[in-house]
Design a protein that fits this description.
This protein is α+β, with helices and mostly antiparallel strands. The chain folds into two domains: about 80 residues, no CATH class; about 150 residues, Transferase(Phosphotransferase), domain 1 (Orthogonal Bundle), CATH 1.10.510. The chain has seven helices and five strands, in the order E-E-E-E-E-H-H-H-H-H-H-H. A three-stranded antiparallel β-sheet has the order 1-2-3, with no helix packed on it. It has a two-stranded antiparallel sheet with strand order 4-5. The longest helix is centred in the middle third of the chain and has 16 residues. InterPro entries: CLK_kinases, Kinase-like_dom_sf, Prot_kinase_dom.
Length: about 230
């Protein structure tokens, strides 16, 4: 076992020789430059690549198109037909259904996109997920932060998890000792240009929602006015 502070390269472990040996700085197919390793699991490693083919700038942020396929035109079902139950996602990006150990589908990726877009544009975390006393991740602080921004979750949503009662009472109200912070999208968004701040917040609200079925699909997000630079 190695501590979290000890550098660790999973590619050196037995069994990884069957995978392609990606290296930082490598350019793949003369199109994608590997710039960072985001994480790894038991059967895959996630790398961040820069698409060397520039697409366009939207609201001051650069977008890139996939070199061979262009911007996707077709997407699968809104939430996917397959449900999973194992733990996924880095702590700050965990969707509510993952935190509460509910079955989850593709909509967790939409939540991820929303949180990551916020991180990149605002340069700060959307949710406070750490216990201030220990500096460790705690689900009760994460959930309290979500409640502070979105309001209480629908009772029907909480009833999908046997673990909801740890954090919420039978009426769906917050019951943990750590308080729910008071925050609004409008006050929390500081770095976005004031002229399109409202449109940006509306874009975020399509992704950051309690229930997975209420989140926008990938194809719907692709047509969002803020993303298209129309506002």
């Amino acid at each position: 076992m190695s501590s979290s502070t000890t550098p660790f390269e999973e590619e050196r472990e037995a069994g990884f020789e069957k995978f392609y040996p990606v290296t930082l700085g490598e350019v793949i197919n003369e199109k994608y430059k590997v710039v960072a390793k985001l994480g790894f699991g038991s059967a895959s490693t996630i790398w961040c690549c820069r698409d060397l083919i520039f697409y366009k700038s939207v609201n001051g942020y650069n977008l890139y198109r996939t070199a061979l396929f262009g911007i996707p035109k077709k997407f699968g079902p809104r939430n996917g037909a397959t449900e999973h139950s194992h733990d996924i996602q880095p702590d700050p990006y965990r969707a509510p259904e993952v935190i509460l150990e509910m079955p989850w589908g593709y909509a967790v990726d939409i939540w991820n996109v929303g949180v990551m877009v916020w991180d990149m544009i605002e340069n700060k975390r959307l949710f406070d997920v750490l216990d201030p006393k220990t500096a460790n991740y705690e689900s009760r602080f994460h959930l309290a932060s979500i409640v502070g921004l979105l309001g209480p979750p629908p009772l029907e949503f909480l009833q999908r998890s046997e673990f909801s009662s740890v954090h919420f009472n039978e009426k769906g109200d917050w019951k943990c000792v750590n308080p729910v912070p008071s925050v609004s999208w409008e006050d929390f968004a500081e770095n976005i240009n004031i002229s399109n701040k409202k449109a940006f917040i509306e874009f975020m609200r399509k992704m950051i929602r309690w229930t997975p079925e209420s989140r926008a699909s990938a194809s719907e997000l692709l047509e969002d006015p803020w993303l298209l630079g129309e506002v």
